[in-house]
Predict the structure.
Amino acid sequence: MEKEIVDRLIFKSGMTAKDYKFEQEIPKRPNPLKLSKWLSKEIEEVEKQIDLIEEEFEVKCTCEKGCSACCRQLIALSMSECLAIKPYIENLSKDEREKLKRKVLEQCHILEENNITNKVINTTRKEEVIQDKYFKLKIS
């Protein structure tokens, strides 16, 4: 597939994720069971969106180790996603948590150097410009 088409596909995926609206209300007092059921339903909806994009571009996405194209998009996490991820991070060994922390701090530094900060993201009307700038950094 041509690089231009791949770039458009990845960009479209990022914009779809940015504009995604939850199909159901986020649980007010999340417990593991409610959160798991909620997240399963949301994943089903996201998979439908992925299918639509794949149909539009006439491709079938197959993730493979080392690709990191989806990892090259600037994606905000919702509070429910943070809650879902937190137990996995807490279950990492101390060394793994430290390695993750160093990686996050390193990437935050790269973003600041390139003026991709929360202030810029939250005040800029040109989402495409920020996504393009982030994508070109090839952070993964």
